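Revision sheet: structure tokens.
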Amino acid sequence: MGQPFDYAPERPEHIDTILDGLDRYNPETTTVFQDYVAAQCENQTYDCYANLALLKLYQFNPHLTRDETITNILVKSLTVFPSPDFSLCLSLLPPHILSPLSASLTSSHSNPAVGDAPLSEAVQKLAVLNAHLCAARYDAFWSTLDGDDLYADLVADVSHFEELMRVRIAAVVSQAVREVGRATLEGWLNLSGSGFEHFVGEVCGWGVEGEMVRVPLNKENEAKGTVVRENVKFDQFTRVIRRAYEQPV
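Predicted:
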């Protein structure tokens, strides 16, 4: 059985108390949640439930909104892909921030149009990164991230963002394949040379054999045949046949 949606092992007790009571709707707790988001960015922790609660407070109290906190929440949600957290966060943002978003995502390889405000532009650009991740275009993710200085500003507050993304990409890859070409994986991880070998060998525990990278067997990438057996007794068929000849009342 999976973990509950609202579970976060690193959540402080005072945040847990707020989330479990009516204070989660108290505007005075906004600063507490904002500080908690900053702590998540610094400590490499993540609490989607608390972040969504803050975005809900912003909905009720637009005058308390902080653009920097919103972008930090979105960036943190990217670090846990392929979970739907990024989309959940988008659903709580104001419509005028998202209005140009649908047009920008019709072509996933094009840059989004600049919105009416810096926050709108930031959201659209982060949505492009999310689209690349969801489509497993990891090389495009890195080229987009490195191709615009604004991205560097958006992810600056999230400590070790690139390392977190490499770990997530590697986790997804390990669920899908048992071997992959070295050149392909270098593009997916945006690493090469000794840095690539260290990450693959020491962090992931994979083996490099010439131009191929071997991923150890796990329950996700193991090919298993499924045998379906049905236990139908003969008397069950007789009841079906008998009903076919019964006269309607």
